[in-house]
Amino acid sequence: MDISILVKTLRQRLGLTQEQFAREVGVTFSTLSISGKTAADGPSHFS
């Protein structure tokens, strides 16, 4: 399973927005959104 799907599932189960989740795990929203990109979205820093 893709890490972005796991992160999204966990975030939704916790009832948090992307910004709230990023703050809770200690990263910026932009870092979280970059990590959620898929190959179809273009290059990712985590590929």
Main attributes?
single chain; 47 residues; mainly alpha; 0% strand; flat
Q: State the distance separating the first and last CA atoms.
A: 15 Å
Number of domains: 1
- Which structural class should the secondary elements be placed in? mainly alpha
Oligomer: single chain
The overall average pLDDT, rounded, is: 77
Number of helices: 3
Major β-sheet, in short?
none
Q: Please report the total strand number as a whole number.
A: 0
CA-atom Rg in angstroms: 11 Å
Report helical residue fraction.
Answer: 55-70%
What is the beta-strand fraction?
under 5%
Q: Any idea what the shape is?
A: flat
Order of helices and strands: HHH
| Unreliable stretches | 38-47
Describe the structure.
The protein has about 45 residues and is mainly alpha-helical. The chain has one domain. The protein contains three helices and no strands. Helix 2 packs across helix 3 (about 30-35). The longest helix is centred in the first third of the chain and has 12 residues, at about 5-15. About 0% of the residues are buried. The model is unreliable at about 40-45 (pLDDT under 50).
